[in-house]
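Whether sequence alone determines local backbone shape is best considered at the level of individual chains. We regard such an encoding as a compact summary of how the chain folds. The sequence in question and its structure tokens are set out directly beneath this paragraph.
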Amino acid sequence: MLKKLLPVVLVFALITAMIFILKPVLESSGFDVNFLLTGNLFLFVLSVSGFLIQLRGLRSSNINAFLRGIYSSLLLKMFIVIMVVLAYVLTTGGSINKPSLFMCMALYFLYTVIEVKQLTKIARKK
């Protein structure tokens, strides 16, 4: 199981390390480093949970279980991300750090690509 999650864990560790190493550069460029670290952790946990949901569906011999896993993961991610962004906007009083928000959007895309790539490898072996 850990071997299947290794790429996601490595990307998380690499991005976290890069944020700490480049902290002065990021702050001078207008990024909120705490927001980036929190967003990276949140997206990592969301990606792992979505991966596990989809993996459970992939292991099932029933195609309906597989599709439920895909849709459950998609809806879970979508609604949780919307709730977190809404909570962020409400807690900051509408003062949004756009560079950090767009960077987290890029991280979401990166984690999704890695997740799909790993699930595709597993599905091919099956």
Remarks:
- Helices lie at 2-21, 23-28, 33-59, 63-92, 98-125.
- Residues 19 and 34 are 9 Å apart (CA to CA).
- The chain has five helices and no strands.
